[in-house]
Design goal:
InterPro entries: P-loop_NTPase, T4SS_component. It comes from Streptomyces qaidamensis. Pfam families: AAA_10. This is ATP/GTP-binding protein. This protein is an alpha/beta fold and about 475 residues long. It has two domains: about 290 residues, Rossmann fold; about 90 residues. Helices cover about 45% and strands about 15% of the residues. It is built from 23 helices and 13 strands. The strands form two sheets. Strands 2-1-13-12-11-3-10-9-4-8-7 form an eleven-stranded mixed beta sheet. Strands 5-6 form a two-stranded antiparallel ribbon. A hairpin with a 2-residue loop joins strand 12 and strand 13. Helix 7 packs antiparallel against helix 13. The C terminus is likely disordered.
Length: about 475
């Protein structure tokens, strides 16, 4: 309650000078009328250089994204994580993104294709359209002179070969090598590299040396030869699986001659490998390191390394460590790593939580498609998404995703042109619901207009070369 002196003072002032304040009565109105008071606003986009993804849902503006154009300005790293449950548009986004990137002459893409139908990988149609033969890694085909990748390829440094051998063994065993087994492997590898000079060393040479170590290997550490043989026995048994087990034929010989590492698109078809077996992370480790030493070169090309089913990498501490090095090394040479994962909870709570956190931290771009509410909340906590984005993720319809580009968060509808549809939606007739087909019919005119706009951009920008390092 105000004191009497203040009331008296205000009354005297009002008498001399009039009221110093006026009381405005509240105004009652409708939201339709009041919306004119608050003009519509939209967050700034990512610029106009790069490839067209689609359009922002709330503003209707075109959404353009390119990690090579944004790197160093709006992106600390060019790596990208794509999340979401099956059937929401991840595959369509990846394929159109690659097709549009390949319109630039200084782009090159490698895809590890772990999914497929009818005996071929999911990227088979796109490869055929571009006149490219996928590199199909298949144990049965490899026995009949199929594709081979040699972990001891001379193109890989000696240090890289040993690191790759250790990773293969640790993934298969499910734990790290102890010092004695590691020593046996190191001396066997060193001996093979010194003595096999007339051809490419192969895994059979390593297995043979582990089973029958030379006396000088024991003398170097002043231990008995029988001890060195015992230390290397488990290692030999693991590598024997690649030589004479269920993975034989793919990695136990010289690298197949004729693999075109200069092609604009290189597809490794892993669809014949059981995705839930230990073979998949082993394959990814071998392919990743082989590419690191044979494909990535300081030639000013911008390279994209897209990995389907990437949880095989992020969920294995040994494979993740190899890919961490690849990601750090690749940033200096223009490499954008794209990891496609269904559920983030599969990896952040797994055995490789530390390594997974490091890889996720390097992914400055995150695209999240529809997830269940509890999964969306967990994803939001790990990735630091704003609350409004977390709340909207469970409500997203196919083709719409939350994009977080280094803190710039937008809701984006991915647009596919009619030209791309036959290459992107390979199983459309079997998987698309009647509601989605009806929606397609309603938007047919809209898509036609968007296709014309995309064709215009491709015509004027498609043959241009990126000038941003």
């Amino acid at each position: 309650m105000r004191d009497p002196l203040s009331v008296l003072t205000d009354a005297f002032t009002s008498f001399l000078f009039g009221k110093v304040e006026t009381t405005r009565l509240p105004v009652r109105t409708s939201t339709g009328q009041a919306q004119a008071v608050y003009l519509p606003t939209a967050a700034p986009g990512l610029g106009d250089s790069g490839v067209i993804i689609g359009r922002e849902v709330y503003s209707g503006k075109g959404y353009i994204y390119d990690p090579f154009q944004l790197y160093g300005q709006q992106l600390p790293a060019p790596h990208w994580l794509v999340l979401g449950e099956s059937g929401n548009g991840k595959s369509a986004l990846e394929k159109t993104y690659v097709l549009r990137q390949l319109r630039f002459r200084d782009r090159q893409v490698v895809v590890l294709d772990a999914q497929g139908e009818d005996g071929v990988g999911e990227w088979n149609l796109i490869a055929q359209e571009l006149g490219i033969t996928p590199i199909r890694l298949d144990p049965m085909a490899a026995l009949d002179m199929g594709i081979r990748l040699n972990p001891l390829d001379p193109a890989i440094t000696t240090t890289g070969q040993l690191a790759l051998l250790r990773t293969i063994i640790e993934v298969a065993m499910g734990h790290g090598l102890d010092e004695r087994s590691g020593f046996a492997l190191k001396v066997a590898h060193a001996y093979v590299n010194e003595t096999v000079v007339d051809r490419q060393p192969v895994l059979t040479d390593i297995v043979e040396q582990l089973r029958h170590p030379k006396p000088e290997s024991a003398e170097a550490m002043n231990v008995a030869i029988d001890d060195v043989r015992a230390w290397g026995l488990d290692v030999a048994l693991v590598l024997d699986r690649l030589v004479d087990g269920d993975l034989r034929g793919m990695f136990d010989g010289p690298t197949t001659v004729g693999i075109d590492l200069d092609a604009p698109l290189i597809v490794f078809d892993l669809s014949h490998i059981d995705r839930n077996s230990i073979a998949m992370p082993i394959l990814m480790a071998i392919v990743g390191v082989w590419l690191e030493h044979t494909w990535i070169r300081p030639d000013r090309k911008k390279r994209i390394f897209l990995v389907e089913e990437a949880w095989h990498i992020i969920n294995s501490p040994f494979v993740a460590q190899l890919f961490q090095r690849l990601l750090k090394f690749g940033r200096r040479l223009g490499l954008s790593f794209v990891a496609v994962v269904h559920h983030l909870s599969d990896v952040v709570d797994g055995a490789a939580a530390k390594e997974a956190a490091a890889i996720l931290k390097m992914a400055s771009t995150r695209t999240i498609y529809a997830q269940k509410a509890d999964e969306a909340r967990a994803t939001g906590r790990v990735l630091g998404l704003p609350r409004w984005a977390v709340e909207i993720i469970p409500t997203l319809t196919p083709g719409i995703a939350v994009w977080d580009v280094n803190g710039n968060v937008q809701v984006v509808k991915h647009l596919v042109t009619e030209t791309e549809r036959s290459l992107v939606f390979t199983d459309r007739a079997m998987t698309q619901s009647s509601a989605e087909l009806a929606d397609d019919a309603l938007h047919a005119a809209e898509l036609e207009a968007e296709e014309r706009a995309a064709a215009f951009v491709e015509h004027h920008l498609g043959d241009s070369e990126s000038t941003v390092a």
